[in-house]
Amino acid sequence: MNRFFAIAMVCFVFALPLHAQQLNTDMDSTVTTTGQVTIKGVPVKYRATTGKQPVWDEKGKIIAGLFFTYYERTGISDRSKRPLVISFNGGPGSASVWMHIAYTGPKILSIDDEGYPVQPYGIKDNPYSILDVADIVYVNPVNTAYSRAVDTMDDKEVAKRFFGVNPDIEYLATWINTFVTRQNRWESPKYLIGESYGTPRVSGLSLELQNSHWMYLNGVILVSPTGLGIERGTAVGDANFLPYYAAAAWYHKKLPVDLQNKDLTDMLPEVEQYTVNELIPIMAKGGSISDAERKEAAKRIARYSGLSEKVVMEHNLRIPKNFFWKELLRDEGYTIGRLDSRYLGLDKNNSGERPDYAPELTTWLHSFTPAINYYIKNVLKYDTDLHYNMFGPVRPWDRSGNTTGDDLRQAMSQNPYLHVMVQSGYYDGGTDYFNAKYNLWQMDLSGRLKDRMSWRGYRSGHMMYLRKEDLQNANEHIREFIKQTTPKEGQPAQYKR
Description:
17% strand; glycoprotein; hydrolase; two-stranded antiparallel sheet; signal; Rossmann fold; 2 domains
């Protein structure tokens, strides 16, 4: 987990015990409302089901209730052909609020075209929602939003059952099975979408659903993916940040004139090629490189990062990301955001090695928190005195045994229908776009799955959909992905020699 999300999570850990506010003990109840949104000029009527569905233990005893919101387009006579999208956010410990009311759902929060808060707070129709082509359910794992474990479980048992890479995948797969059965959606084409930590979650779920529940998917969408348990090593790990540094420096006009005068996507291939072909081998050599090699590498890194050669040399060619966010605009008195480097911050002192806070995260919480609390109570009509956890207490989180990238590869190998699409923001420094590409290269060493993998880049950050242009484009890319990966009637799932 990144430092700034960790700070937010720690604050909640101290503020809220694991079993705080067990005010709504009904783990199996929902409310239903209806609505309408115009998407691409066409009115789309829908039904929204909001509430909790249980998680059961091995003996059939309820151990948790997961809060969810399920949108179904009404007037559909045959749901066997209607795709179902199952949506998760990340953290871990983050509610599904982000993609729910800012990306794919029928309502989005009121922000300006670049994603900054405006008042009065609230929501508005989302004319780019994917609800025209698919039904959507937004799922909140334990301790996020209003999801809670039962108060008869002690903290150690809660952590063991719910807080870890593999426990998270296992119980969520069981929950999905129940949901699909209750909603009679077994015949439907199914898709998982996850953002940030939600990407190892849905990657692992793709195989768990196949192997333990015999549920086969059509697609997995990874929004701002993490490393997915794919090893990088020191050399690759240090080198792979450079293309992101170049993108952020380009945005803030800190590159040399010849690079700055190019468009972003015309400039970045030069940096990517240097990273793979020259910088990774240099990093692998470590201190054995000659003085001439070191000086030349420092010159190139400075050229692409917007930092000085002196600073690059002082860091032995390896620029920590925390330092980059502090250093790039230090001479102007600003820091830049981690998850979206378009955002500016103001620190107490210009000196130091890292920013005081994450300006993008505070900005997002500024606009999302009032919007989701208003929307659930007043529009979706779900009423509770529980605290809505934007970030909930999920510590300690067991990160051992993370093979989720390979799990997704294996699921794809077993299921010829399964496709993967990755969506990345160029200015995301937390889960950067070049490492997202690297994931795909390393998942598919044989190259035999590459025709079922795709990558899309956007001129924004971690939550690219906050920028209006990217909201439209990214939703359209999902819409196209769903249409392209829903097989024709009678098309067999088989490999052909």
